[in-house]
Amino acid sequence: MRVFVTGATGWIGSATVDELLATGHQVTGLARSDESAAALRAKGATALRGDLDDVDALRRGADAADGVVYLANKHDFGPESDRAERAAVESILGALDGSAKPFVLANGLSGLVKDRAAVETDASPEVGPGADRGGSENLALDHVERGVRSVIVRFAPSVHGVGDWGFVTFLADAARRRGVSGFIGDGSTRWSAVHRSDAARLIRLGLERAPAGTRMHAVAEEAISTRAIAEALGEALGLPVTSIAPADADEHFGFIAGFFGLDMYASSARTRELLGWTPTGPTLLEDIRSGAYGHAE
Question: In this protein, which residues make up the domain named NAD(P)-binding (predicted)?
Fold first, then answer.
């Protein structure tokens, strides 16, 4: 299959490109820079220069492909990023309408439900251009009726591994700055986690086999307490572990406090049954204790 990947040199995207190439697919990756393009070519992929604002490049990439994997995001958690994602996804879906080609779209788990594990049948509440991520999940699913094999992959808040620069890296950096590894309140809030290699394999399986309208959960560990994460970081970094009062969390952790204080956990039972996906990578706590987060941001 000829696969067009956005976010192809990012944390999850680069692992996905490796997975696709290793299993015989041809890959074209969207590249914002000469360095990104060179990295893709060095792997044996093709580079298409452009970014999320270049809707013409996105259409060309989708037109020339047998399937599309959308993993890009501006990561500013604001209206500009939401608008950019909406326009980018609209341009790709316009190119795929009526083709029956697969379109795998990334999303997260936050905000789906409260007080229980999210499941794959839970619909995203984000609808319309002004919604989080431009309502792209529901937009993609709306295009199933227009002949696109849309598949959603919702990622655990920690997609971990050596070299991770995501949420756990920010927690480790806060611990180094403050001299303590903290958790908020009693540390009972829960996060799901998945190793990067397992996430990449799930994306490939969804691209190849998931039926139109599928929501997949890239979740290997359903619920890890935030206290356990802080304790593992403290052990790895040689720092004491302490509770941070909710009123002091923003000052202590920075922007990551808003996520560390949330329950973001989900089941992947339906995903595993549907696609035969069995995670095999290290656990989050194993990665932390082995030194995966010993690097500075």
Answer: 7-84
